[in-house]
Design brief:
With 518 residues, the protein is mainly alpha-helical. Among the domains are: 1-200, MFS general substrate transporter like domains (Growth Hormone, Chain: A), CATH 1.20.1250; 203-248; 352-411. The chain has helices at residues 3-16, 18-28, 34-40, 45-73, 75-94, 99-127, 133-164, 167-171, 174-184, 187-196, 204-209, 213-223, 226-247, 260-275, 278-290, 296-320, 326-349, 365-371, 382-393, 395-400, 402-409, 414-429, 432-443, 449-477, 479-501, 510-517, and strands at residues 352-354, 378-379, 410-411. Strands 2-1-3 form a three-stranded antiparallel sheet. The model has no long low-confidence stretch (mean pLDDT 83).
Length: 518
C-alpha cells in the first residue's frame, strides 16, 4: 500500500476509534464520583448502584438498535450523534440538580456507549484493507482501555488540585464541585471527536448498500490503489447481494439442537467475564481501596494503577493471542483470578477495627463526642464496624466520614489489597477481556453469527449491569471479604468450565470449527 494511503487509513481509524476512548472514559469516570454523589443526593446503596449500572443497561439496549439504524442513516452520521450525546451527557451530569436529573444524563451517556461499541469497530473494519484489518480494528479496543485509564488519571488530578489549595482550584470552585468537574471534563474530547469526524469519509459498504457505487469507489480510492479499490468494490457488491439470506435468519434458530453446544459456550463465557467482578473494580475502584483504610487521596492513586495495569496487560494479550492461543490465556487468566480473589478475601477477612482517642484528634468535636461511645471497642469485620458508625453518627455523617474513620480504625495490610486488585485486573485483561470477543467471532457459524453475537453480548451487558447495581449493597451487607470470596467461587467454577468445555480455536478455519461444534 502507498505510504500516503496507509497514513490516511491509519488517521481515519484513529479518529473513529476515539469513540472507544469516550466510551471507556464515560464508563469509568463514575468510579471517582460515587462517594460524592451519594453524599450530595443522600442516596441509598441500591440507588447508587442503579445510577452506576443504568449506563450499562441503556448501552445494552442501544446495541440492539444501533446496527439497523446505522444501515439506514450511515455509520458516520451516527458516530457524530454519539459525540454530541457524550458531550451533552457530560455537561448534564456535571450540572445535575438532583438524583433523577443525574440518572437521566447518565442514561443518555449509555446511548453513546452502546452505539460506539458497535459503530467504531464496524466502520474501521469496513474501510480497512484486509491485511491491516486486525491491527486497525484493535485501535478501538486499545482506546477503550486507554479511556478507562485516562479517566482514573483525570479524577486523581482533580483531587490533587483540590488539595493543593491553588488559585486555580479556588477560581474554579473545585473544593465544592470536584465531582462535577470529574464528569464535565469529558466534554473536551467529545467536542474534539465531533469536529474530527467531519474529516472522515462515509463507509464504502454503506454507500454501496444505498446504490451509490461511484461515491463508494471514490472513497475506496482514498484508502487503496485504484485496481484494489475496483476489486474491493466488486466484492462489497457481491457480499451485499448475498446478505439478504443472512438477514432472514430467525432468532429461534439459535436454539436448534445443532447449535446447543456452541450457544451454551457463548452464554457461559459471556456470564463468566462479568460475574467475576471486573466492572465492580472499574466502576468502584476508589471505594474498594478506601475499604483498606488508605484514605481518599491514596485510593485515587491506586485507581490510576488499576488503569495502567489494565492497559499494559491488554496490549500483552493482543500480542499473545495468536501465538499461544485462546484456551491457554483463558486457563492462565481465570486461574489467576481465583488466586487473587483468594488474596483479597484473606486480606479483608484478617482486618480488625478499633477507634482510639488518639486517632480521632483530627475530627470535629461533635464527631469525637459521638464516637466516644464505641471507642476502644474491637470489631472483627467491616460490616459490624460500619454498623456501629451508622448507629452513633447517623447515615449522612457516617457515609461522609467513612473513609477517614476506616483509615483511623483499621488494622490490616493494605498492600495485600493492592496486590490482589492489580493481579485480578492483569489476569482479566490478558484473558477474559479480549479473548471473549475473539471466541464469539470464531465459534458461531456464519449464517447466525450476527444475531448470536448480539444475543450473548446482551447477556454479557445484563450481567455487568447486575454486578454494578448490587456491589455497594454487597459491601454494606456482606462486607468486602465475603463479596470477593463470592467472585472467587464464580471464577473457580469458570476455571473448570474452561478446562472441560472450551476448544482451542487458534490456527483453525471457521469452517473446521463450524463442522466440529455445529
Amino acid at each position: 500500500m502507498q505510504m500516503g494511503k496507509k497514513f490516511f487509513t491509519t488517521r481515519v481509524a484513529l479518529i473513529v476509534a476515539l469513540g472507544g476512548f469516550l466510551m471507556g472514559f464515560d464508563a469509568s469516570v463514575i468510579s471517582g464520583v460515587n462517594k460524592f454523589v451519594q453524599a450530595e443526593f443522600d442516596l441509598s446503596d441500591l440507588q447508587l448502584g442503579f445510577s452506576v449500572s443504568s449506563l450499562t443497561i441503556i448501552a445494552a439496549l442501544a446495541m440492539l438498535i444501533t446496527g439497523p439504524l446505522s444501515d439506514r442513516f450511515g455509520r458516520r452520521l451516527l458516530l457524530k450523534y454519539c459525540a454530541l450525546i457524550f458531550a451533552i451527557s457530560a455537561l448534564g451530569s456535571a450540572f445535575a440538580l438532583n438524583y433523577y436529573s443525574f440518572l437521566f444524563f447518565r442514561m443518555l451517556g449509555g446511548l453513546g456507549v452502546g452505539a460506539s461499541l458497535i459503530l467504531a469497530p464496524m466502520y474501521i473494519a469496513e474501510i480497512a484493507p484486509a491485511k491491516e484489518r486486525g491491527r486497525l480494528v484493535s485501535f478501538n479496543q486499545l482506546n477503550i482501555v486507554l479511556g478507562i485509564t485516562i479517566a482514573f488519571f483525570s479524577n486523581y488530578f482533580i483531587v490533587i488540585l483540590v488539595d493543593s489549595g491553588s488559585s486555580v482550584a479556588t477560581m474554579l470552585h473545585l473544593s465544592s464541585n470536584q465531582w462535577r468537574w470529574m464528569l464535565g471534563i469529558e466534554i473536551i474530547p467529545a467536542i474534539i471527536y465531533f469536529i474530527a469526524l467531519f474529516t472522515v469519509p462515509r463507509s464504502p459498504r454503506w454507500l454501496v448498500s444505498k446504490s451509490r457505487n461511484q461515491e463508494a469507489l471514490e472513497v475506496l480510492n482514498q484508502f487503496l490503489p485504484k485496481e484494489q479499490a475496483i476489486e474491493d468494490l466488486a466484492n462489497i457488491e457481491k457480499s451485499i447481494s448475498q446478505a439478504d439470506a443472512i438477514q432472514k435468519v430467525r432468532f429461534s434458530e439459535l436454539f436448534k439442537p445443532a447449535l446447543r453446544t456452541v450457544l451454551a459456550i457463548g452464554i457461559l463465557v459471556s456470564v463468566l467475564q462479568q460475574i467475576t467482578g471486573i466492572n465492580a473494580v472499574f466502576f468502584y475502584a476508589p471505594m474498594i481501596f478506601e475499604q483498606s483504610g488508605i484514605g481518599t487521596n491514596a485510593s485515587f492513586i491506586q485507581a490510576v494503577l488499576v488503569g495502567i495495569t489494565n492497559l499494559v496487560f491488554t496490549v500483552i494479550a493482543l500480542l499473545l493471542i495468536d501465538k499461544i492461543g485462546r484456551r491457554p490465556l483463558l486457563l492462565f487468566g481465570v486461574g489467576g483470578i481465583v488466586v487473587f480473589m483468594g488474596i483479597l478475601t484473606y486480606g479483608f477477612n484478617s482486618a480488625t477495627y478499633s477507634l482510639e482517642s488518639a486517632s480521632l484528634t483530627d475530627f470535629p468535636q461533635e464527631i469525637q463526642k459521638n464516637l466516644s461511645i464505641i471507642q476502644n471497642e474491637r470489631y472483627s469485620s467491616d460490616v459490624t464496624f460500619k454498623k456501629a458508625l451508622l448507629e452513633v453518627l447517623g447515615p449522612e455523617k457516617a457515609k461522609m466520614n467513612e473513609s477517614e474513620l476506616l483509615a483511623s480504625g483499621i488494622q490490616m495490610n493494605p498492600t495485600l489489597i493492592l496486590v490482589g486488585i492489580l493481579g485480578f485486573v492483569a489476569c482479566f485483561a490478558v484473558s477474559l477481556g479480549p479473548v471473549m470477543w475473539v471466541l464469539f467471532s470464531e465459534l458461531f457459524p456464519m449464517r447466525i453469527r450476527g444475531i448470536a453475537i448480539s444475543f450473548v453480548g446482551f447477556i454479557n451487558s445484563a450481567v455487568s449491569a447486575i454486578v454494578q447495581f448490587v456491589f455497594p449493597w454487597e459491601l454494606s451487607t456482606f462486607g468486602s471479604s465475603t463479596t470477593f470470596m463470592i467472585y472467587g467461587i464464580f471464577a473457580l467454577i469458570g476455571f473448570f468450565f474452561v478446562m472441560l468445555s472450551i476448544p482451542e480455536t487458534k490456527g483453525r478455519t471457521l469452517e473446521e470449527l463450524e463442522q466440529q461444534l455445529s
